[in-house]
Amino acid sequence: MIELREFTLAYPGKENLFAPQHFSLAAGESMALCGDSGVGKSSLLYACCGLIPRQIAADLQGEILLQGKPPASHSPAEHTKLVGMVIQNPEIQLFCGTVELEVAFGLENLCVPREEMQTRVREALELVGLWARRGESPSVLSGGQKQLLALASVLVLQPKLLLLDEALSQLDSDACANMMAVLSGLRKRGQTMLIVDHDKNRRAKLCDREILL
Fold first, then answer.
1. 12 preceded by cis ω (within 30°)?
2. Closest alpha carbon to 66 in 42, 49, 43, 46
3. What mean pLDDT comes out for the span 70-79?
4. N- to C-terminal Cα separation, the chain
5. Are 9 and 64 in contact (CB under 8 A)?
6. Given the DSSP bridges, would you call strands 21-25 and 2-10 parallel, antiparallel or unpaired?
7. Which residue segment(s) compose the domain that 82 sits in?
8. HSE of 157, CA atoms in CB hemisphere, 13 A
9. What's residue 73's pLDDT?
């Protein structure tokens, strides 16, 4: 699914964030990125999804390949089918008027037929337990529900690779348990995941192995 060949990166005028990395992630595998704060875990995810260097300038060394091609070389339409990312703060990812419109937004941009769109939106919201809240504004949801909505808005695009950047770190215990249940279900269904999370117990439940930066 993704392969790094002696890959590292540096922001302009800075030193390399981490030692050159050489590893691969197979389809259906779940892997965690570990390391101290500031070592470059989030930056590595940004490179995996193409934000670096497409939107964020950085000097790259070595190779990073998403299904055999550099992530930034895939067209936007191709890219949404390959990789989706959920970040730490769901507020940054939510901007539509209702829960249902939020999940439908990406499909509308891909010109998915209306009937298929309705089916996929319902499936994604039922998966995260928010179908009953579909007509409400995301602003009235709890923090945990907002994170589940952000996840649904990514899953509805059916990405082959799911990136999670500290997606559970701001949640209380109940919300975290709900999110873990959804992610565990995805893992059982064979969803490929690359996860940054500081909690060792959560990583043990979600990941097949760990890479230390």
1. no
2. 49
3. 84
4. 20
5. no
6. antiparallel
7. 2-212
8. 28
9. 84
3-class DSSP assignment, residue 121: helix
pTM of the predicted model over 0.70: yes
Q: What is the DSSP letter of 69?
A: B
Q: Which amino acid is at 181?
A: A
Q: Enter the tokens of residue 20.
A: 């050159």
Please list, in sequence order, all residues whose beta carbon lies within 8 angstroms of the beta carbon of residue 44, skipping any fewer than 6 positions away. 9, 17, 18, 21, 33, 213
Pair 144, 175: CB distance under 8 Å: yes
Identity of residue 134: R
Distance between CA 92 and CA 175 in Å, rounded? Answer: 18
Burial class for 212, CB neighbours closer than 10 Å (0-12, 13-18, 19+)? exposed
- pLDDT of residue 162 exceeding 90, the answer is yes
Q: How many CA atoms lie within 13 A of 107 on its CB side?
A: 24
User: What is the model's pLDDT at position 170?
Assistant: 83
- Name the residue among 41, 48, 35 with its Cα closest to residue 3: 48
Domains: count for the chain: 1
For residue 195, give the H/E element and its range: strand 192-196
Q: Is residue 18 predicted with pLDDT exceeding 90?
A: yes
CA-based angle 80:46:126, to the nearest 5?
45
Return the number of other C-beta atoms located less than 10 Å from residue 160's C-beta. Answer: 16
Residue with tokens 């890479």: 211
CATH number of the structural domain spanning residue 11: 3.40.50.300
Structure confidence at residue 103 as a pLDDT band (50, 70, 90): very high
